[in-house]
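Worked example 2:
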Amino acid sequence: MEHNQKGEVDSNLLLELKDIVIPTLDKKQIILNQTSFGVEEGSIHAIIGPNGSGKSTLAYTIMGLGNFKPSQGKIIFDGIDITNLDITERANLGITLAWQEPARIEGLSIPKYISLGVEDKKNINKIILEALKIVNLEPEKYMNRYIDESLSGGERKRIELAAAIAMRPKLIMLDEPDSGLDMIVIEDFLNIFNKIKDLNMTILLITHREDIGMVADHGTLIWRGEHLLTDTFPKVMVRYCARAGLKEFCKRTLFDDNGECPALDSDYIDRIFREEGMD
C-alpha cells in the first residue's frame, strides 16, 4: 500500500483531510477508513475507484451534506477547520458541489437558476453570459429558455455546471460528471474542466472512470473504503488498473504510439502489476 507523505505543512493545499473516518448512519459500519490527503490550490484532483468505494460519500462529507459526518479526523479548507461547520458555512467559504444527477427545478428560467447562488447581482447578466460560454452553451439560445423536458441530460449538466461556475467558488466538486454522457460529449467536458482551472478555481473530480481522470494533475485512489494512494494521476491510474486487472487498457491510455509516457518509466506498469500479484 502506498501513501503520499503526510503530516507536513504545505501552504499550497486548499483542502486537507486528516485521518477521516466516515461511518454509516447507524455507526455500525465504516464507509471510508483513515483517509488523509491534500488538494493543491489551482489544481484538478481526481478521486477514482470502483463503484461503492466511498468516493461520493467523501464529497458529500466535505460539502457538509445532511448526515454525512466524520466520526474521526479533521477537514481543513483554506487553513480553516471546517469539520463541524454546516453546509451554508462551507458554501460561504467557497465550496460547491455539482451532482451526478442535475437538479430538476422545472419551470425555472435558465438565467434565474444560474443566478441563484451569485452574490454580485449588479453584474448578474454578464456573469450568466460568461458562465454559459464557459460550458459551451450559446447564450442567445438559452437566455430565454426554461428548465423543462426540452433540455437533454447533457444540457442540464452544463447548466448546473454554469450555475456552480457563476458562484466563483474556490473549490468545485464534480461528482461523476461523465455519468450518462457519450465519449464525444465527455471530450468537451474535459475541455471545460481546464477552462474552470484557468479561472483559478480548484476542481475535485469524482469518477469511477480512470480515463476521465487523465485531465487531472493529481489523483487519489479509494478502494473498498480504503485510501490506497495519492500521487500524480498517472501513478494513481496505474495502481487502479493493477487492482482492476486492466493492464492493456492502462498501457493504451497512458503511453503513446511510440511506447512513451513522460510521467512514467517504461517498466512502471509491469512493476506495479507484479506488486499487486496481477502479472
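The two ends are 17 Å apart (CA to CA). The chain has two domains: 1-94+170-231, 103-168.
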